[in-house]
Design goal:
By secondary structure, the protein is of the alpha/beta class. Helix content is 41%, strand content 19%. Strands 2-1-3-12-11-4-5-10-8-9 form a ten-stranded mixed sheet, with helices on both faces. It is globular and about 55 Å long. Bound molecules: 3-isopropylmalic acid and manganese (II) ion. 3-isopropylmalic acid (IPM) binds next to α4.
């Protein structure tokens, strides 16, 4: 019996997570996987009510779960950074979820903005380092509000942090068993300190332990270009935190939009957290119009990470069937021709067959 913590969070978060849970229930009813859910009321509303983004002791409580299912964090009435740093990043850091795993996969029946590209061309995974880089929180503002104002935001890289992300990516490339090609995305020509650490870690680890994996390198600007021009060149991409943030939004677009893009914040030795990467989309909140597929696929990733392959496969097949059915007109919020819960019902129906 797994214990899963559910944080619906802000905006469309609770609505899409509800559909993710609906599909999880339908799939596990067939596979026999059992779990209990505990719902946590965290997010912008709670912050506005109590002044706390993450109450004392909550992180330790969350350590007791097998996984966390997260909707979205972000509230229009809360200043930028408060919830992001106080809730989402705190969970990632304190639970040491050092991998942000973001598959970019175009399913048949889904439209991509890339002309002439199809599902056979767009199927790769981004392994984003999730605890360091520009997200470290190091730096500050001096002489604020004066003409002499100075601000720094330090790109913190440790060999340990880079290496563990790189090792995870090599293992994943081997496990995927496709092109067996791992691309390091960095900017070694400018970030000659932090990305030199990445570069050496990448080559040393690859040479010593992964001779079967082809090592490829692309600067982040070139990676952005190739993702649009030749996405079929990628199998697995490993990159630092900020670059990973940016290229995975682009990845989401080429796989059909934020409505289908799921991700996992993974601690391979601890508790991992799964989320649709699209955010809280406040303008669609409470209207039952947002696409729940990203959240449903986040549930699939959750099961996969727990080692429940059969349940994960069942969810993915159900998503694929729904997308190929032609019943969902578009994946954009408000344009699906169905409501959020109807899409959830459709996929849950397939998952339970
Ligand atoms: C994401 C988001 C977060 C990030 C924000 C909300 C802090 O954009 O999960 O990609 O930058 O990591
Ligand atoms: Mn992002």
């Amino acid at each position: 019996m797994y214990k899963i913590a559910v944080i619906g969070g802000d905006g469309i978060g609770p609505e899409v997570v509800a559909e993710g849970l609906k599909v999880l229930e339908a799939a596990t009813a067939r596979t026999g996987v059992t779990y209990e859910l505990e719902h946590y009321d965290l997010g912008g509303e709670r912050y506005l009510r109590t002044g706390e983004a993450l109450p004392e002791g909550m992180v330790d409580e969350l350590r007791g779960f097998d996984a966390i299912f997260l909707g979205a964090v972000g509230h229009p009435e809360v200043a930028p950074g408060i919830l992001e740093k106080g809730l989402l990043l705190r969970l990632r850091f304190e639970l040491d979820q050092y991998i942000n795993l973001r598959p970019v996969k175009l399913y048949p029946g889904v439209e991509t903005p890339l002309a002439g590209k199809g599902p056979e061309d767009i199927d790769f995974v981004v392994v984003r380092e999730n605890t360091e880089g520009l997200y470290s929180g190091m730096g500050g503002i001096q002489y604020k509000g004066t003409p002499q104002e100075v601000s720094t935001q330090i790109h913190m890289t440790t060999r340990f942090g880079a290496e563990r992300a790189i090792r995870y990516a090599f293992e994943l490339t081997r496990k995927r068993d496709r092109e067996k090609k791992l691309t390091l995305c960095a900017k070694t020509n400018v970030l000659t300190f932090v990305h030199d650490t990445w570069w050496r870690a990448f080559n040393e680890v690859g040479e010593a332990d992964y001779p079967d994996i082809e090592r490829d390198y692309a600067h982040v600007d070139a990676t952005s270009m190739w993702m649009i021009k030749n996405p079929e060149w990628f199998d697995v991409i490993v990159t630092e935190n900020m670059f990973g943030d940016i290229i995975t939004d682009m990845g989401a677009m080429i796989q059909g939009g934020l409505g289908v893009a799921a991700g996992g914040n993974i601690n391979p030795d601890g508790v991992s957290m799964f989320e649709p990467i699209g955010g809280s989309a406040p303008k669609y909140a409470g209207q039952n119009v947002a696409c729940p597929i990203a959240a449903i696929s986040a549930g699939q990733m959750l099961m996969e990470t727990l080692g429940e392959e059969e349940t994960a496969t069942r969810i993915e097949s159900a998503v694929e069937r729904a997308l190929a059915s032609g019943k969902i007109k578009s994946l954009a919020a408000g344009k699906m021709g169905m409501s959020t819960s109807e899409v959830g019902d459709l996929i849950a129906g397939y998952a339970g067959e």
